[in-house]
Amino acid sequence: MEKVLETIDRFKKLKAIVVGDLMLDVYSFGTVERISPEAPVPVVRVDYDEYRVGGAANVANNLRVLGAEVKVAGLVGEDYEGKLLLDLMESQGIDTSMVKVVRGKKTIVKNRIVAKGQQLLRLDREDLNDKGGKIRKKILSDLLKYSQDVDFVIIEDYNKGFLDNFIYRTVITSSPVPVFIDPKFEHYSSMKNAFLVKPNFEEFKKATGLRKIRGNFGISVENFRKRLNLKNLVVTKGEDGMYITNDEGVYHIPSLHRNVFDVTGAGD
Questions:
Q1: How many domains does the chain have?
Q2: Within-domain flag for 23
Q3: Does the reported pTM lie above 0.85?
Q4: Separation between Cα atoms, residue 100 and residue 102, nearest integer Å
Q5: Cα angle 161-55-217, degrees, rounded to a multiple of 5
Q6: Pairwise CA distance, residues 203 & 200, whole Å
Q7: What pLDDT, in 10s, does the model give residues 32-68?
Q8: What does the radius of gyration of the chain's CA atoms come to, in whole angstroms?
Q9: Which domain does 138 fall in, by range?
Q10: Transmembrane segments in this chain: where (predicted)?
């Protein structure tokens, strides 16, 4: 426990940039009292809504809570949700100077309907059309400039249209600091030479073409790490914990089993 606290305390001295898909998370908490007469679905009486930073903004917020100094880079729409997301990030001490507002773009919103601790439904409002081409280049230029003054960069990819292979390659090859990646399958070819890549099991299967686990799964993880020439590869497997591989070896860290109502992010 002492080592854990020491590790957490180190974050207070760190500076980071988080680049990726920014989202607004909305939680609508309510009560189910009956089934709708219009269709066999529950009627939820919403008592209140909570607004939270999501996606790459959530990663930035977690680092901020640990005490790190954080800049976030990404896009929001010129809408109410975008302004709310910016306000939330700034209120939590996150530097939003590399967040650009794009006219005609809709801010990504994930609205979760929750009753008695159980998530019943999620409504996604997304705009996957590329409306930030020129702005993206400006963000990338700023990111490379500011990366000279931070300790690490995190790429948080939800495949929502902001990140592309060019950004991956440029950040990895040009940043003077370690680059950590929470990836999507579509961009694996551009992740070579990264400091750390952390896919979940499903993403790992897509990237490797693995359908069934035969023999030692750790060997498959290590082979993939060598293929991309990664310093570190971490594969999360939900209830089976995670596999970590680097030049020092392959390690399996089991998970602690708990009964939960909402597994959002639990596999990571």
A1: 1
A2: yes
A3: yes
A4: 6
A5: 90
A6: 5
A7: 989 999 999 999 999 999 999 999 999 999 999 999 9
A8: 20
A9: 2-197
A10: none
